[in-house]
Specification:
It is globular and about 60 Å long. It has ten helices and 13 strands. By secondary structure, it is of the alpha/beta class. α5 crosses α6 and α5 packs across α10. α2 links the parallel β1 and β2. The chain has three domains: 138 residues, Rossmann fold, CATH 3.40.50.1370; 156 residues, Aspartate/ornithine carbamoyltransferase (Rossmann fold, 3-Layer(aba) Sandwich), CATH 3.40.50.1370; 44 residues, no CATH class. The strands form four sheets. The chain has a five-stranded parallel beta sheet, with no helix packed on it. The structure holds N-carbamoyl-L-aspartate (NCD). The site of N-carbamoyl-L-aspartate has 10 residues, from α2 and α6.
């Protein structure tokens, strides 16, 4: 069963096939009006969303399918204490595909262990957001043809911005990409992404100023400071408004720059940028719906399959990340992966530590 937890797990051939299908749908959407007739998408949003939720729902409807689900977990059995395991076990017997957003890191990977249909990660806390990356890549490829040899600036909250982590991981597949990671030290990329970039010999420069690098860039990917992920309001307030791209700063940029943003924007892009032809963030959001149509259509062909027996995991390991899904769903097997920096959690990518299983305490 193919789940979409991390887009970088797709091979380049699989991605190119998805991109070709997206392009065909953009050029001739009416040809796909019945492509998912009779299919049902389960849409489980445990965290606020506008674009992602609406674009998945409209994508499914434009393919002739239908959507069930929720966007407020308070109205569901989760509020009664139901486990993720039971929810996915049950919903996957009703729906043909499931898209989920959850505030816990690694939640989509965890849910996929118990689902008999494909699970799509629509954002797991500050970890990953693969379908935004699909949207971002479709935007770059449609507008510029390739991402090879590009200088890409990513600006704002690189610590908690899940779209940033997914995009960097995926761009590893392209040749000679140079990254300018623009953030204050408090919001710089997490260690596991820095490690990933080093392991893959990706070229990156970590800088704090936006203006000095603007003239060099082919893509400027602006992001929102992720207020909801901060542990204190005062910390958020000290960093809020730290970057603001405006028409004056854009004067220094290349004429063929792409200004991108996953949206929603708060104050990091001034309204006076919107009419500049280099500002493509609303077009990017439109491409997102077509990219999701291609993904839903591709995955809907898999049908239902009983999930394999849950792997045993290592009961003598615990994740060090307090935001990891293993902290709130204690039945999950502790799955780990070996990295150059040691053993890490297979759900959220953070380091694990030795621990004593509850049963032996
Ligand atoms: C992003 C997200 O949810 O991570 N939004 C989106 O899906 N388009 C970015 C954000 O919320 O800042």
């Amino acid at each position: 069963m193919r789940h979409i937890n991390d887009l970088s797990e797709l091979s380049m051939e699989e991605f190119q096939e998805l991109y070709r299908l997206t392009s065909n749908i953009i050029d001739r959407p009416e040809g796909y009006a019945d492509a998912c007739r009779g299919k049902v998408l389960g849409s489980l949003f445990y965290e606020p969303s506008t674009r992602t939720n609406l674009s998945f729902s409209t994508a499914m409807m434009r393919l002739g399918g239908s959507v069930v689900g929720f966007s407020d977990p308070r109205s569901t059995s989760t509020a009664k204490g139901e486990s993720l395991k039971d929810t996915f076990n049950m919903v996957s017997s009703y729906a043909d595909l499931i898209v989920m957003r959850n505030p816990r890191e690694g939640a989509a990977k965890a849910a996929s262990l118990y689902s008999s249909v494909p699970v799509i990660n629509a954002g797991d806390g500050g970890h990953l957001h693969p379908t935004q990356t699909l949207t971002d890549m479709v935007t770059i490829l449609r507008l510029r043809g390739s991402a090879d040899n590009m200088k890409i600036g990513i600006c704002g909250d690189l610590k908690y911005g899940r779209t940033v982590h997914s995009l960097i991981k995926f761009l590893q597949k392209y040749k000679n990409v140079q990254f300018y990671l623009i953030a204050p030290r408090e919001l710089s990329i997490p260690e596991y992404i820095r490690r990933f970039m080093a392991e893959h010999k990706m070229q990156f420069f970590e800088v704090s100023g936006l203006e000095p690098v603007i003239p060099m860039l082919d893509v400027l990917y602006m992001t929102r400071i992720q207020q909801e992920r901060f542990s204190s309001e005062s910390e958020y307030r000290s960093l809020k408004g730290i970057y603001c791209l405006n028409a004056r700063k854009l004067q220094e940029a290349k004429p063929e720059l792409l200004v991108m943003h996953p949206l929603p924007r708060v104050d990091e892009i001034a309204q006076d940028v919107d009419d500049d032809p280099r500002a493509v963030y609303f077009e990017q959001a439109r491409f997102g719906m077509y990219a999701r149509m291609a993904l839903l259509l591709t995955l809907s062909k898999q049908g239902h399959r009983r999930p394999p027996k849950t792997p045993a995991g290592n009961p003598y390991r615990c994740c060090t990340n307090p935001k990891c899904i293993t902290k709130t769903e204690p039945y999950l097997p502790m799955l780990t992966v070996e990295t150059s920096e040691g053993e890490c959690c297979a759900y959220c990518d953070k380091p694990v530590e030795k621990c004593i299983p509850r049963s032996e305490e």
